[in-house]
TrEMBL record:
Its EC number is 3.2.2.31. Gene3D superfamilies: Helix-hairpin-Helix base-excision DNA repair enzymes (C-terminal), Hypothetical protein, domain 2, Nucleoside Triphosphate Pyrophosphohydrolase. The lineage of its organism: Eukaryota, Sar, Stramenopiles, Ochrophyta, Bacillariophyta. This is Adenine DNA glycosylase. It comes from Skeletonema marinoi. Belongs to the Nth/MutY family. GO terms for molecular function: 4 iron, 4 sulfur cluster binding; 8-oxo-7,8-dihydroguanine DNA N-glycosylase activity; adenine/guanine mispair binding; metal ion binding; oxidized purine DNA binding; purine-specific mismatch base pair DNA N-glycosylase activity. SMART domains: ENDO3c (SM00478).
Length: 666
């Protein structure tokens, strides 16, 4: 057993106070991740170990009795020494320029750019907003993690022979199409969707346009690519130009958006189209500054439209790009950190987007650079595939496999924590402990890395290596360590528990006198806030975790990822709250009619930041009532009686669908 230095033990137990024994790096969790598109990375690593072991075995059986190290062993020792030097400089660095000056020099940025463009052109996904013909399938499900076979068994991909090209559908090189001028074209004439859908549109390819890119970027915000494809095609069929969208009604827009969630995006896209028509003649602006004047377009979307549609040399930074940058330059922070997604992350990405060769360029060199749009899309594509959270960092098909600092750091930490060289180990552990406890109070800090980020990442990687070695003892330490380093960078973001709200919902139906059609009482939500402007059944909030027992929840508890306990509200209290609300919608005698409480389990509907627990009360009004289709309430909201056809026309949310389905099977 290796003796652990007191400094390291103290730092380790400070970070992991629970269950640390006298053994170095207590093992907690097995490796259950699919990290390669071909097979499990540890299986790949194991195969490479066997292959490398053969020549060594033959050498040991030969007549050569020399004990001198082989050339391969010398090279490995030299590489380990270089990685350990890198690890020391990484732990000690105190300025964000370290990441650029060390890992993203002009020469490195140029090589990264050309590798990305070459890979992207050969393998990119076929997507309708890129002007590609169908069929389309943007799903990454089953490639970054193990696919499931029939019978529920997980397929690690080791026997099916598939590689990344099968995911990309063997996409051939598609020439970038000229941007369409929407005005000229006109003159000529809460994920709530299926997880994977293939849309065949070979004969109806939509021409590439800045407007199409704009729509796709808005839809892709917090929604998976494969979920967006069908919605985008339907949208462009109904609203093929900025003018046609600007002239649409809010109900038409909502109906086309229904199911995508985050409905505020649709309202802003609609408002933005009106501005583009009024102020830019229906032509989407071609600069970031002008684009950001349009409703719903921030820096990210403006940069995406400008670079992809118009070739403007600006970076585009999202979570996928932040992950790639973190692994390329060793940033110990999470991808949602403001300094990454809103500040210095853009400077790093710009180094790649604007990279040039230091030598005199030729036409071939310029072509290899690709367009800014290609570079940005390649970075995002890489972050969604090989450099996804489950990426291994050692896959030979990964275009940037040679550039990841994350894997080098992992290998260095593996060497240090499993080395017999006590002096090196103690020196590194002392540096890490100083970073963890902040003993160097006069030391400045890197703006890109989280406070104590390098030290925390060191401990996470060491734990991961120990755990993985225990489950895969035949795999080479170097491979296990590289994968662990890649898996632990960027670091995991802090998780918050979702806000909980308990709602009492009234579902009231009746029939209209003149056509005997069943209709449902609906109210329109306020124009601001969650699901703004959407139609729903009348409901009231009877409890929220934000103000439990009349007090705000403790901040530390709110930041915890532990689930918040949701109480069962007394049914009488729920009914009284609904009576009061409905009295402001219907005449009081009708509003006070008794409703049947659906007493089995409530309906739960989850949004990105809040969870609704909905208790349903139902009543059908037997009297024939002359029903007004719609009317204004005193609080400025609208109410109305809607048939199911009416609901489809205005585009109801999936939460309303759930409630309606429950009531109809009673």
């Amino acid at each position: 057993m290796r003796i652990v230095s007191f400094v390291h033990f103290a730092a380790l137990t400070a970070r992991h106070p629970i269950a640390h024994s006298h053994k170095f790096l207590t093992i907690r969790r097995p490796l259950q991740r699919q990290l390669s598109y071909n097979s499990h990375p540890l299986q790949m690593a194991s195969s490479s170990v066997k292959a490398e072991a053969e020549p060594r075995k033959r050498s040991s059986n030969s007549n050569n009795t020399s004990n001198s190290p082989s050339r391969a062993e010398k090279k490995q020792k030299s590489g380990a020494s270089s990685d350990i030097e890198l690890l020391q400089s990484w732990i000690k660095h105190d300025n964000h320029t370290y990441h650029v000056d060390t890992f993203l020099t002009a020469s490195q940025a140029y090589q990264i750019r050309t590798r990305l463009v070459s890979w992207y052109r050969a393998n990119r996904r076929q997507l309708p907003w890129r002007g590609d013909p169908g069929p389309y399938d943007g799903s990454t499900v089953g490639y970054s993690k193990g696919k499931k076979k029939k019978g529920g068994k997980k397929d690690d991909g080791s026997n099916d022979g598939k590689d990344i090209r099968s995911f990309f559908g063997g996409a051939s090189k598609v020439k970038r199409q000229k941007t369409t001028n929407e005005s000229e074209e006109e003159k000529k004439e809460e994920s709530e969707t299926p997880s994977s859908m293939e849309v065949k549109e070979e004969s109806n390819t939509v021409e590439f346009s800045a407007y199409g890119v704009w729509v796709s970027e808005i839809m892709l915000q917090q929604t998976r690519v494969e979920a967006v494809i069908k919605y985008w095609i339907k949208w462009m069929d109904s609203f093929p130009t900025v003018h046609s969208l600007a002239n649409a009604t809010p109900e038409e827009v909502n109906a086309h958006w229904a199911g995508l969630g985050f409905y505020r995006r649709a309202r802003l896209l609609h408002a933005g189209a009106k501005r583009v028509v009024d102020e830019y003649g229906g032509i989407v602006p071609n600069t970031v500054d002008e684009l950001m004047k349009v409703e719903g377009i921030g820096r990210y979307t403006a940069s995406a439209i400008a670079s992809i549609a118009y070739g403007v040399e600006v970076p585009v930074v999202d979570g996928n790009v932040c992950r790639v940058l973190s692994r390329l330059t060793g940033i110990a922070n999470h991808i949602k950190a403001p300094v990454m997604k809103d500040d210095l992350g853009w400077e790093l990405a710009e180094k790649i987007v604007k990279a040039r060769s230091s030598s005199a360029s030729t036409k071939a060199d310029d072509d290899n650079l690709g367009t800014p749009g290609e570079v940005n899309q390649a970075l995002m594509e890489l972050g969604a595939t090989y450099c996804s959270p489950a990426g291994s960092g050692i896959d030979a098909n990964d275009p940037l496999v040679e550039f990841y600092v994350s894997t080098r750091l992992g290998r260095a930490i593996g060497h240090v924590t499993n080395s017999k060289d006590g002096a090196t180990r103690d020196r590194i552990e002392e540096l890490v402990a100083k970073g963890a406890f902040g003993t160097d109070k006069n030391k400045s800090r890197c703006r890109l890395c989280e406070l104590s980020g390098a030290s925390n990442a060191f401990y996470s990687i060491s734990d991961r290596i120990a755990a993985d070695l225990s489950t895969s003892p035949n795999v080479k330490l170097e491979a296990v360590s590289a994968i662990a380093g890649h898996a632990c960078l960027p670091i995991s973001p802090p998780k918050k528990a979702k806000r909980e709200e308990v709602l009492a919902v009234a579902v009231i139906s009746s029939r209209i006198v003149d056509d005997d059609q069943l209709r449902w009482l609906m109210v329109k939500r306020p124009s601001e806030g969650l699901l703004a402007g959407q139609w729903e059944f009348p409901n009231v909030e009877v409890w929220t975790s934000a103000k439990a027992d009349g007090k705000k929840v403790n901040k530390d508890k709110a930041k915890s990822k532990a689930a918040i306990e949701v109480p069962i509200i007394d049914p009488t209290k729920r009914s009284k709250a609904l009576d009061s609300f409905i009295s402001g919608i219907l005449d009081e005698p009708i509003a006070k009619k008794k409703r049947k409480q659906i007493k089995d389990a409530p309906i739960t509907h989850i949004f990105s930041h809040v969870c609704h627990t909905m208790w349903i009360e139902y009543n059908h009004l037997d009297e024939d009532i002359a029903l007004n289709k719609r009317w204004k309430l005193e609080n400025g909201r609208e109410a109305g009686w809607m048939s199911e056809d009416d609901m489809r026309d205005v585009g109801i949310t999936s939460g309303v669908h759930k409630i309606l389905a429950k009531v109809k099977i009673m």
